[in-house]
Design a protein that fits this description.
- This protein has about 270 residues and is α/β, with parallel strands linked by helices.
- Helices cover about 45% and strands about 15% of the residues.
- The protein starts with 17 loop residues before the first strand and ends in a 14-residue tail after the last strand.
- The protein has 8 helices and 7 strands.
- The protein has one domain: Rossmann fold (3-Layer(aba) Sandwich).
- Strand 2, helix 2 and strand 3 form a beta-alpha-beta unit.
């Protein structure tokens, strides 16, 4: 029950709670890890770049955070990492399925191995991380799983067939898991980032794949998002403030998906 503790911000306090963030060494994953840690959670950063994960975990506010090398597309890596987190923390209260990759090619030139690689990372790993962490959460009768989708979960983006398809699938997976596990104490929701200031987006801008000024004109809020914008949404879904929210998709895009822009602003 929500009471006057809300005014003091205690409903955002995650002291004693634990969280896993996949792909958490940089970008949106690191933004989520930072806000969960800021609220008092102990965070395990899982990333296939082990040294970067160590640096990221050490830079989080608070204490008790850990870093684990983990390629979420490899079953043995996933199982080992989840076991290590559970052994270190004794519980897993939040899972942020953030790890993801993209692949750019027109549909007629898509390579099968590249297509399958995107699916393995963006949707297959999300399913099996959720399954394996979900088993622990079911024993606890509590937990929050947060899946990272995209504006492309709702919108087409030419040249990104594999990415768009996987991010659309995130919504279906989120709804099914939410419906199956709600009565057993697990909430499952998704976040839809728009264009945010990350290293990857900057590379696209530098390589001419994205024109920053056109994107800004397309965003009603008038700015690119920050990794903090995603971190705040993750904190909401991890906190008691969302205790009656499951199966939902929260767009964090500055209004991008609500705006019918003219052609020269796309």
């Amino acid at each position: 029950m929500i009471n006057d503790q809300c005014a003091g911000g205690s409903l955002f306090h995650l002291s004693g709670k634990t969280a896993i963030v996949t792909g958490g060494a940089q970008g949106l994953g690191f933004g989520s890890a930072t806000w969960l840690a800021r609220a008092g959670a102990r965070v395990a950063i899982l990333d296939r770049n082990g040294p970067a994960a160590i640096v990221a975990a050490a830079s989080l506010p608070g204490e008790g955070h850990i870093a684990l090398h983990c390629d979420v597309t490899v079953a043995e890596d996933r199982k080992r990492a989840i076991a290590d987190v559970y052994q270190a923390f004794g519980a897993i209260d939040t899972l942020v399925n953030n790890a993801g990759i993209t692949y750019i090619a027109p549909a007629e030139e898509i390579e099968e191995d590249q297509w399958r690689t995107v699916f393995d990372t963006n949707i297959h790993a999300m399913m099996f991380m959720s399954r394996d962490v979900g088993r622990i959460m079911l024993q606890q009768h509590s937990g929050s799983i947060i899946n990272i989708g995209s504006i492309t979960s709702l919108l087409a983006m030419p040249g990104r067939g594999a990415y768009v398809t996987t991010k659309t699938a995130v919504l279906g997976l989120t709804r099914v898991l939410a419906a199956e596990w709600a009565e057993r104490g697990i909430r499952v929701n998704a976040i839809g980032p728009g264009y945010h200031k990350t290293k990857l987006l900057q590379e696209y801008i530098d390589n001419g794949l994205v024109v920053e000024e056109k994107i800004r004109r397309r965003i009603p809020a008038g700015r690119l998002g920050s990794i903090d914008d995603i971190g705040k949404a993750a904190l909401f879904f991890a906190s008691p403030l969302s205790e009656y929210v499951t199966g939902q998709f929260l767009m964090v895009d500055g209004g991008y998906t609500t705006f019918g822009a003219p052609g020269d602003a796309c």
